[in-house]
Design a protein that fits this description.
GO terms for molecular function: DNA binding; sigma factor activity. With 751 residues, the chain is of the alpha+beta class. The chain folds into four domains: 233 residues, no CATH class; 105 residues, Sandwich (Immunoglobulin-like), CATH 2.60.40; 109 residues, Sandwich (Immunoglobulin-like), CATH 2.60.40.690; 110 residues, Sandwich (Immunoglobulin-like), CATH 2.60.40. It contains 17 helices and 28 strands. It has a six-stranded mixed β-sheet. Strands 10-18-17-13-15-14 form a six-stranded mixed β-sheet, with no helix packed on it. Strand 5 and strand 6 form a beta hairpin. The longest helix has 24 residues. The two termini are 87 Å apart.
Amino acid sequence: METPEGPSDAELIARVRNGDLEAYGELFGRHHHAAERMARQLVSANDADDLASDAFAKVLDALRSGGGPDISFRAYLLTTVRRVHVDRIRSGRKVQTTDDIAAYEREPEGFDDPTVTGFESGAAAKAFASLPERWQAVLWHTEVEGEKPAAIAPLLGLTANGVSALAYRAREGLRQAYLQQHLADVAGDRCRWTTERLGAYVRGGLTKRENRNVREHLDDCAKCTAVYLELVEVNSALPALLAPALLGTAGLGYLAAASGAKVGLVGFVVTGWKKVTENSTRTAVGAGAVVVVAVAAVLAAIALTGNETPPAAIQKPPAQKPTQPPAQPPTVPPVKPPTVKPTATQPTTAPTVPPPTTTTTEPVPTPTPTPTPTQTTPAPPVPPVPTTPILDEGLVTITMPPGGGAPAYAIPGVHTREADADAGVNFIITIKVPAANPDPVVIGMKYGAGLDWPLSGNPKGWICDKAAGKCTATNPAKPEPMPVTFSTPDGGSTADRTFTVSAKTGRLYDDDSETLTAPPRPDENLLKLVAGKADPDVHHRILTVAPGTDRPSVTLKITYGAALDWPIAANPAGWKCTEKTQTCTANAPANPAPLPADFVVPDGGSAAARTYTVAATAGLVSDTDSETLAGIQQDESLLQIITPTWQTDPNPLVYNRFLKINGNAGRRVTVDISWGRNLLFLNVLDFGWTCSRSTDVRRATCWTDNYHKPFNSEWAALPGTGATNQITVHAQVGGREDTDTAQIPPSNPRR
């Protein structure tokens, strides 16, 4: 079996607390590279070694004082690096002089990291904090650091397979703890139903109907959509969640340095985005796009520019002012065209006295005013009315009124019959709509071939159409309960005896069904008792049940008289039988297998003692058959009394008579022997036979279960004839018997 190399982190931590500094040196060797990598995200490369050394010193002090981690050394160390860096920033602030000392007597200002604050306020961080430290450690190393199980095994004191198994349990525990954080705040039944199934929804483990219902609810519920998005983030973006929580904004840089390629982080976020969108939830896409695109943009900038500045130093983009609607354009005044003066034609010879110049003034045309454009404020877009149907499992319910069965009183609008007739089966259909529901409430009824329309006229508060199979509530805000009565079906399949009520109001819909029970009815064709192969010693019977549908079980009850025994062999094919209850149940009710039943031929008894009865029940159908079996039959060829010759006589001093049985077929052979007063049955035992004498000294019974040769009876006789010197032998094998007699000594000279 694979064993981890060296002591685990937990063992080394325990040794440090006991004063073993060499153990701390081993911890230093395991984790100082990670500490320096974290330090480089916070300070320059020249100062990173000093920052990491200070962090190791802080952790050592904590362990010596009984504090610090028990298992998860790496995460605790990296958090200490960040805290030491924050302490250095605080201590390096410039000294300011002031005459108001009271202002500095308040509690010291804490260092606020908005990344950590945002994460720790969420359910994901609470769920992670509730996990055992061992689970937190394995999640950090596998999910955040991305280390292989073989590399983590020495740190946790496990094998590589053990690390993989622990990581699986830790991830599942985080998912369950996260969902429990949200279930406590869920108020509505629909939200609780959806939240309980989000874990399976993310893993694709719901049925088609459940998957559709969850998706429809997420389309309309922003709160459950937020839970879904965060759960996807817990499953697919665990490093991006845990690293900022413990390491601050430098956590993403630490992850990038650990992976060796910053582009890998962008690919990581894209992978998370695929998981967010893989269920095609429209609301999830809209909300998740903002988060993923923003994070991807920051990581892409780091990856493409190669900027080594710690993420905490990246400046936030300036906040954009909200876009204002365009202002009203100013009205442009009409422009006055310039006055046009014609040029005077000069004479060739200038006159002595210049004539007066006449200036012709053109009329100024009236300019056409420029029309002022009218600013049209666009109407806000009207959000589309959602049309996706929503399953409301509490919209319609079908109940049976107290008492059920035949109604004790007449209900208006319900089909009734005379008092001495079948009054049918009553049900109440209840519709539960939202408060002040404005939408019409319509129910439809479908029923099997064994049922009829259950209403006559219109029940109170409803308008019904028998041809369409629908009813509409007159008051959709508060529909009246609808009583219906179905006549009792006289048979048929489950589908024939089932009715379904479908309700719809607005986007809400629901349906409910009930199946009526028909009274049992006899069917002479259900059960048959068929004779099997001919056998003089056993009555072979085959019990057959006709095939059929819509029956949950097929049961046979076998009863028999005192002269018979249980006829079913152990474990018959296709049946499960119990001798104690005298019942057999078919494994395949739709098509039961033939059931063999073997009755040994009774050796006597009355007709009732030789009678068996089989009662079959298949769903609502039953049948009963019985048969009286014949007793023992006379067979003249069964027994022979043989007198041996002098060559075959085993003992010439006595009279030997061989009792030969024919056709025993391996069954028990019984012979009953009686004799006259001049004879004496010698008490000699034949091998394989057992004999017993009754209280009558001239009668004996012998039997064997392994007949392989005739029974040799030895006799002593006084001279005489008739009954005083006669033996009578009665032989029985199974259901056959035979009786023969012989004289001793015989009338002829032979012995």
